TrEMBL record:
Species lineage: Bacteria, Pseudomonadati, Thermodesulfobacteriota, Thermodesulfobacteria, Thermodesulfobacteriales
Family: Belongs to the class-IV pyridoxal-phosphate-dependent aminotransferase family.
Enzyme class label: transferase
Annotated protein name in UniProt: Branched-chain-amino-acid aminotransferase
Source organism (scientific name): Thermosulfurimonas dismutans
Pathway it works in: Amino-acid biosynthesis; L-isoleucine biosynthesis; L-isoleucine from 2-oxobutanoate: step 4/4; Amino-acid biosynthesis; L-valine biosynthesis; L-valine from pyruvate: step 4/4; Amino-acid biosynthesis; L-leucine biosynthesis; L-leucine from 3-methyl-2-oxobutanoate: step 4/4
Length: 357
């Protein structure tokens, strides 16, 4: 498939604002990638065009039945002036797993990744130069067929938009406080929790509002069946550092297989840490805090990077972790990952892909 370029002439491009104090996902660049799907032509009309609103039929399936998936990755401006993507093939593969789960058409991973690189290159002036900030890349796909019958759409749009971002949480790299809910559930076995379906995030909003009212930044979800085993935070996966064991919940089918999660597992194993992917009950976590066995807790995600957790709220009580401070392991993982992403350190894992003109 060809990629058509319908670019804004230089004089129509917006001056890039100062990329400082960015609120996550509010500012968008000059261009976007779009392609269309129908059953006869399959994916077609691929183009990079000026960022603009789109028009949708009010009966479009996505608006009623949420047939939509997305991805999230970042482009980093390296210390050597080169632009890097971090493990983008993993995003492409996860996107296609999501497409299959949601009865949507697969995309050609190579083609989409090359379109993303092209788009990032075209709008490279929008990549923040500051360490810790990056250009967030949001690929997404949704069903556009006008139909109120509940069925997979026959037509789709696939788009990629770009947003300069700094840290996801207001706290930056400072520890966040997290609310453990045993009232609401994010995802159940057999559901869509392990793919990036838009509906997973809609389902999380109510609990997040409850958490926010109580002064907590995010929600930690427990398993849907027993409301006992820790799953994830929704915007990130979660890790616990007990004594000498780094633990994260095993992928149960209702947890998102995070790419940063996998990178942390690989790094920690590479450093010789004892690492486990297993079930962790909330009781074990609380007991770990009370006995001092739990040294650190942190979240991982593309948007969140490594996000230390300084406190957990569970059943009416707040528990401080590591006196509410960032622990040395979270700090070391953050330093190592970002050093690879910004090209300060060699990339022994082959995680980085360059974007070049
Ligand atoms: C990401 O980290 O890319 C995510 O998808 C989380 C997002 C919902 C902000």
């Amino acid at each position: 498939m060809d990629l058509e370029l319908k670019l804004l002439p230089a004089e129509k491009r917006r001056p890039v604002p100062e990329l400082k104090n960015l609120v996550f996902g509010r500012l968008f660049t000059d261009h976007m990638f779009v392609m269309e799907y129908d059953c006869e032509r399959r994916w077609h009309a691929a183009r990079i065009e000026p960022y603009a609103p789109i028009s949708l039929d009010p009966a479009a399936i996505v608006l009623h039945y949420a047939q939509t998936i997305f991805e999230g990755l970042k482009a980093y401006w390296g210390v050597d002036g080169r632009i890097r993507l971090f493990r983008p093939w993993e995003n492409m593969q996860r996107l296609n797993r999501g497409a299959e789960r949601m009865c949507m058409p697969r995309v050609d991973e190579e083609f989409v990744l090359s379109a993303i690189k092209k788009l990032v290159w075209i709008d490279r002036a929008w990549i923040p130069r500051e360490k810790g900030a990056a250009l967030y890349i949001r690929p997404f796909m949704f069903g556009t067929e006008p139909s109120l019958g509940v069925k997979p759409s026959h037509t789709y749009l696939f788009m990629v938009i770009l947003s300069p971002v700094s840290s996801y949480y207001q706290e930056g790299f400072n520890p966040v406080k997290i609310y453990v809910t045993d009232e609401f559930v994010r995802a159940a076995p057999g559901g869509t929790g392990e793919v990036k379906a838009g509906g997973n995030y809609a389902a999380s909003l109510k609990a997040a509002e409850v958490a926010k009212k109580k002064g907590y930044t995010q929600v930690l979800w427990l398993d849907a069946v027993e409301r006992r085993y820790v799953e994830e935070v929704g915007t990130m996966n979660i890790f616990f550092y007990f004594d000498d064991e780094l633990v994260t919940p095993a992928l149960s089918g209702s947890i998102l297989p995070g790419i940063t999660r996998d990178s942390v597992l690989q790094l920690a194993r590479h450093w010789g840490l004892r690492v486990s992917e297993r079930r962790i009950s909330i009781d074990e976590v609380i007991e770990g805090i009370e006995t001092g066995r739990l040294r650190e807790c942190f979240g991982t995600g593309t948007a969140a990077v490594i996000s230390p957790v300084g406190a957990l709220y569970y059943r009416g009580k707040e528990y401080l972790i590591n006196q509410g401070q960032t622990g040395p392991l979270a700090q070391k993982l953050f330093d190592e990952l970002t050093a690879i992403q910004y090209g300060e350190k060699e990339d022994p894992f082959g995680w980085v892909t360059l974007v070049e003109g």
